[in-house]
Design brief:
Blueprint (H helix, E strand, L loop, with lengths): L5 H29 L8 H28 L1
Length: 71
């Protein structure tokens, strides 16, 4: 006996991935905007900015994957 149909399970998983990817993208975008006035000569600040950009790329890849899955 199945708890969910295969289609419902597919929708649940892709929605979950889409929500997490969107939240990750927004969170890192907000942090990147907040860090724009920090000292660019500090290696920690540059490293943080790089990490935020990578996080945004990961979020975009997740969202593109979800959209591609449904097309």
């Amino acid at each position: 006996m199945e708890i969910l149909s295969p289609r419902a399970f597919d929708v649940f998983l892709t929605s979950s991935v889409g929500v997490v990817a969107a939240a990750w993208l927004v969170y890192d975008a907000i942090n990147l905007v907040r860090a724009r006035h920090a000292d660019s000569n500090d290696p920690k600040v540059r490293d943080r900015r790089f990490g935020y950009v990578i996080g945004m790329i990961i979020g975009v890849v997740g969202l593109v994957g979800v959209v591609h899955h449904y097309l």
